[in-house]
Amino acid sequence: MNIALVTDQAFEVDRAARTASPLSVRGLTVSYGQTPAIFSVDMTVRAGAMTAIVGPNGAGKSTLLKAALGVVTPLAGSVSVFGQPLAKMRDRIAYVPQRASVDWDFPTRVIDVVMMGLYRQLGLLGRIRAKHRAQAMNCLERVGMTDFATRQIGQLSGGQQQRVFLARALAQDADIYVLDEPFAGVDAATEKAIIAVLKELRDTGRTVLAVHHDLTTVPDYFDDVVLLNTQVVAAGPVVDTFTETNLQAAYGGRLATARVDPESAAG
User: Fold this and answer.
1) DSSP 8-class letter at 46
2) How far apart are CA 142 and CA 135, in angstroms?
3) What is the DSSP letter of 109?
4) How far is 144 from 213, CA to CA, in rounded Å?
5) Are residues 219 and 35 in contact, defined by beta-carbon separation less than 8 angstroms?
């Protein structure tokens, strides 16, 4: 067998996968001071799937998202969106940051926050019309927040605030939805509402990528998983990748309470 030919074929398969992928990163490295937060990370997100990034505290999960979105500047590596440079394709991505990173004291109403997601239609000085308000209200309806449209954002509970930021992302009508710990600090009803919306997006062909912290719900919520601990430990479909062996490799001695139910992971 011609080894050079096999290598070339493997390269072409990898390149085709990255071109088709909604989001692909290669060799992504970010350092804060002398300590790498992530090192030489490769990740190819499958189109039309829900993918979780999981790993221990300090594993670089949020950093990976921010570097992939250009929020932080990597030391090395590349990012492509549908095979194109990130800079050309930002409008196809909607980002929901960690709730703790947002200034909730900023005086603005819920409806105004959601209409921020319509910036592509409005432009910097665009006039807000009735159709724009109707679009925003529709997004609030999808997350169960229409009754709070005129409420100040700082007056809402944590779960309600998270729903509003998801509504803002929905208003962008993006192809890729990237969320940083969307279920952190929310009540059970909000978690149920959010996962229902995300699965609806997936079922209509959109791609969802989320940092997730609750290992017990990974098999129920996600199709694919990336196990991260500064570097990628394992990645792929949940049924194949979300195993006790891979989790122990990612978490080491820090995996104390979470365990994988093989029947759940296979279902």
Assistant:
1) P
2) 11
3) B
4) 24
5) no
Residue 76, beta-bridge partner list: 29
**Token pair 């309600």 is at which residue?**
160
Query: Do residues 15 and 33 make contact, with C-beta atoms less than 8 angstroms apart?
Result: no
178: β partners: 95, 209
Q: How many Cα neighbours within 13 Å face the side chain of 237? A: 6
Q: For residue 148, name the pLDDT band (cuts at 50, 70, 90).
A: very high
User: What CATH code is carried by the domain that includes residue 215?
Assistant: 3.40.50.300
Q: What percent of the chain has pLDDT over 90?
A: 69
State the sign of the Cα–Cα–Cα–Cα dihedral 101, 161, 215, 64.
negative
pLDDT band (50, 70, 90) for residue 203: very high
How many domains does one find in the chain? 1
- For residues 96 and 80, what is the distance between their CA atoms, to the nearest angstrom? 19
Please list the residues that pair with 231 across neighbouring strands. 229
pLDDT band at 10 (very low <50, low <70, confident <90, very high): very low
Judge whether 262 lies within some domain. Answer: no
Strand order in the sheet with 207-211: 93-96, 176-180, 207-211, 50-54, 224-229, 231-237
Side chain identity, residue 115: M
* 154-165 average pLDDT score: 92
244 is a domain residue:
yes
Nearest CA among 48, 53, 58 for reference residue 69? 53
